[in-house]
Amino acid sequence: MADVTTSAQTTTTVPPDIEIAEAATLTPIVDLAREQLGIEPDALVPYGHTKAKVSLGYVRSLADRSEGRLVLVTAISPTPAGEGKTTTSVGLADALASLGEKAMVALREPSMGPVFGIKGGAAGGGYAQVVPMTDINLNFTGDFAAIAAANNLLSAILDNHVHHGNALGIDPRTVTWKRVVDLNDRALRDVVVGLGGVANGIPREDGFDIVVASEVMAILCLATSIKDLKERLGNVVVGYTRDKQPVTARDLKAHGAMTVILRDALAPNLVQTLEHTPAMIHGGPFANIAHGCNSVMATRTALRLADYVVTEAGFGADLGAEKFIDIKCRQSGLRPSAVVVVATVRALKYHGGMAVADLKQESVDALTLGMANLRRHLRNVRDVYGLPAVVALNRFPTDTDAEVAALLRLVEEEGFRAFEATHYADGAAGAQDLARGVLDAIENSPGEMQLVYPDDLSLAEKAEAVATRVYGAAGVTFDAKAARRLAAIEAEGFGHLPVCMAKTQSSFSTDPTLRGAPVDHTVHVREVRLAAGAGFVVMVTGDIMTMPGLPKVPASEHIDVDDDGRIVGLS
Amino acid sequence: MADVTTSAQTTTTVPPDIEIAEAATLTPIVDLAREQLGIEPDALVPYGHTKAKVSLGYVRSLADRSEGRLVLVTAISPTPAGEGKTTTSVGLADALASLGEKAMVALREPSMGPVFGIKGGAAGGGYAQVVPMTDINLNFTGDFAAIAAANNLLSAILDNHVHHGNALGIDPRTVTWKRVVDLNDRALRDVVVGLGGVANGIPREDGFDIVVASEVMAILCLATSIKDLKERLGNVVVGYTRDKQPVTARDLKAHGAMTVILRDALAPNLVQTLEHTPAMIHGGPFANIAHGCNSVMATRTALRLADYVVTEAGFGADLGAEKFIDIKCRQSGLRPSAVVVVATVRALKYHGGMAVADLKQESVDALTLGMANLRRHLRNVRDVYGLPAVVALNRFPTDTDAEVAALLRLVEEEGFRAFEATHYADGAAGAQDLARGVLDAIENSPGEMQLVYPDDLSLAEKAEAVATRVYGAAGVTFDAKAARRLAAIEAEGFGHLPVCMAKTQSSFSTDPTLRGAPVDHTVHVREVRLAAGAGFVVMVTGDIMTMPGLPKVPASEHIDVDDDGRIVGLS
Q1: Is any Cβ of chain B less than 8 angstroms from the Cβ of A28?
Q2: Is the pLDDT at B3 greater than 80, yes or no?
Q3: More exposed terminus of chain B, fewer Cβ within 10 Å: N or C?
Q4: Under CATH, which architecture does the A143-262 domain have?
Q5: HEC states along A492-535?
């Protein structure tokens, strides 16, 4: 499911994330906003003393400001060893700030579901965290709850419409719009609703996704104004009539009320890092079924407030970064100036074939084999995306000097620069070399971002472009049903949309066990989903989980609160 | 479903609620808290500039303060004509403040579901509203979302436990714990979850209630501290083992994480009325399946901050007020000093047999007949609850002087005082007579509140006491299954709990069509539900709706937001 971020990285000297976070002294958010960003208190909507939304009116008032440079943090293909993309984003922003630059970090909001499952929190780790950590990982400013309410109101209105005579002629068997909750709840994946007799409506198959997999989440993250949000919500296709005509949220007159529920959620959230660097944490769509980046509102607002904005895309550079470019940048006009590819010695040894249990053992050979994964990502960034790339070597205590030296050399042989980073243990000081490298890349490699494919290719050709150019695949095949659906979507007028590839994050291929850099593989699309409101067409390859389950012993068993309200057990 | 509050009252001169609310100039909540209540900004957790939570630490710091007087606002049996309990509560608090008293109002939070259904908002009406009205009616401070998340996390953990081997031996057929959403969604009343094969768990019948019907809501409203909240959540019984032993949230190790989710929600919310009287709006359980009052935390905190606190109980004095006394006061030690019974000429004519369409016609005869309803409520308050009662005659423009004079006389003949109130149109000035009457009642009738039954009666005897003493019933009968369940609950050690009668609000009887004051009726209990965490046993009589549906044309169709983010269509 969601990214494996970084708390996996542990040393004997660094206390648990929550202890560091709870011990931190935070700057009152109104002071931080005024002193560092020039935002007056009236332009903030505080949620407590250390988090705030930046009002939509203030966001609008920034429209004519010039924008800073955007640095995209991505990674090699994720492994069970953990890479540390969020910590690196935070550490890099802190390091830029410590070098005297006006810097911000713009990240996704964590989903509460995984917090109670396996993953724990997602606000960075060690000495590279965003705070208040428990708030950010839990209810935060209510954005996810608002998304769930808007999503589920549309479901309720849809079923209500069918119940009350179905004037639009919706075929209940064709409804694609699912309900959502922000929990890991496998029992809700496949359900039958409307049981119990006439008064309860029409029985039909339905299911719940986790909030981050919802189209409303993707829409909120791509919308540029209340007007655009409402327009996109109106465009959502919920299903089809018996005449196979799409039925939209606008047809159901649901989009106005949905926008009302989401009005406050559209405003970006401002918090800070442990080192008081301003942080925008806003939106958090999946990086498979959706585009996997924080909101356009937050990124754009940060760029108008700072000279350097560090942002993160989901999973590896084949997934999150591709979508960042082909969906978020395509729709918004945003353009990154440099890309940081996060790699670890451990993860590359895993890509070189080592078992997880063996990763503590030194192996330059495995590392050299695993370099194939990093190499392809780096070449993609440079040659396909057209952007300067820098490698962040997120160093773990178990990494040997020989391994680190080998990795630095291997990267250099590819014509890129790699920088050791120890922000997890050392905060900003641990990422200053990386920060200087990034600044240097921005100055000296004025790349111009390239989309992977133009709008006017067919949807199948777009998938083919991503698969061959980014994944190194031989080609794309389609289930007969998926091919028919593609044809229908194009006939409905959605052929101009970009594609959103839902692929395993663990491999360049659709087989999660193929580590490194597989070649000559085929990408098989088994299902196609239209996200007309978000503005993309999802190509589902393999099994994509849109509702995680809880493990046998969920993290929730150890999450508790003492009598004074202090939360314990959150990692 | 939820109470019919007051916006039904319209005149040609009073603008729509939302226009009045949006035109209001609100005092910044930090200023209001400091100036009126002596609360420093650090003790507040602001949510924007006009709403805040009062921090739990500050709430605790008030523990030794003396408490003001509590005024409970209740009503005759609700009718389609609308009575105006919330507006009267707001108007009375404003009037007390305008007379120089230090007054607050403590109300329930509206549920978002009905806002998009028929009901519209629930923040008062006319010139007697709490503001910011749109915020209060929508996501507010996230309390309901947190309740839903905590409730549904328990469901997820339960199904996960069964899926992963069911070490506790839970019998899935006996699970009574349902999922919730804060929407009107009839399609979710009866569902089957866990479909789709082995990976998705065990299929079983389930259902969703609306958040206000959940035990977590009741628990949050009765909890007095984080510790008490966690203890109550741990006590929740979710179902039974195959050996018929109760399984609790504590057995599932879910209560700690649930408490974590609810930590912020436990702190009471501070807002203001249109006339800048401080208002606590916190919690909102149903008044049938639950106890129908705002939170103990809010009521108690308000009493420590003000000399007079006006609070409201759900539905009529037979339902909400009875539960206010027998559940909320019994558990918390709170004691009201006076009771205001809200009545209208229109509603009493309805109780006297008039059709809704005819209510604009003068009829002292119908009014005199309908007085039977008010009479029984007044006698109950005085003779059963042991409290001084005052009638608020919430005057509508269509009421004739003859009708008003007749009602005032009828009330006087019963030995009570009634006061015309026009706060809907006139604000505080319209309720000053009522306020003086309430102050007088408190001074001159130092009643001592009586519980309707002692703890040590059997559960059946407790139901009998309410039915005969309050409802005027001849007695109580039980379905065989309900009787068996009662015996089991007592055997499990819950016989000492108070009962929570789930009865139609429209009649003293269980037949909603029996207006006025029916006698010799029998209350038939068809189902019994244990709420071990909330600390009561629900006696279900008749059909009690715990998940409303949307009407053919839901209010959501007319609720919209303009490009500047202004919400329209909310009433």
Answers
A1: no
A2: no
A3: C
A4: 2-Layer Sandwich (3.30)
A5: CCCCCCCEEEECCCCCCCCCCCCCCCCCCCEEEECEEEEECCCC
